[in-house]
Amino acid sequence: MIALAVAASLVFSGITPVERAEAATSVSRLSGSDRYATAVQISKSGFKPGVPVVYIATGADYPDALSAASAAASQGGPLLLVAKTSIPSVVAKELARLKPGRIIVVGGTGAISNGVVSSLKKISPVKRISGSDRYATSLAIAKDAFSTSDIVYLATGRDFPDALSAAAAAGSQSAPVVLIDGKSSSVRSSVTSFISSLGASRAIVVGGTGAVSSAIEKKLKSLSAISKVTRLSGSDRYSTSVAVNKASFPSATKAYIATGSSYPDALAGAALAGSVGAPLYVVPRTCLPGTTVRSIADINPSKVTLLGGTGALSSSLNSLVACSPDAGYPRLLTVKAVPAGENQIKVSWTGQGRATKVAVIAGSEGSLSSHQFKSAWFPPGTTSITLTVPENLRGELGTGSGNPIFVKVATYNSLTASDSAPITASVSKSYRLSLAGTYTYAGHTPTTKTVRVAEWNVNSVAGSNGISGYTWKDRRKKVAAGIALANADVVAVVEATTAESWSGSGKTQWEDLEGLLASSTYGSYDIAYDNVGPAGTNTTKGAHLFFKPGSVTLEHSGATSLKSITSGWPSGLTDRYFAWATFTQKSNGKSFVAAAVHLPPGNAYKSLRLTAIKAVDAFLEAEGGGIPIVLMGDLNSSFAETPTGPQTALVDAGYYDASAAPSRSNNRYSTANLTNQIDNKSKPGYPFTPYKYKYAAPRIDYIFVKHAPGATKYVNQIVLSGSKFTTSVQGSDHNLQWAEIGIR
Question: Which of 42, 114, 301, 542 could form an SS bridge with 497, CB 3.0 to 4.6 Å?
Answer without folding.
Answer: 542
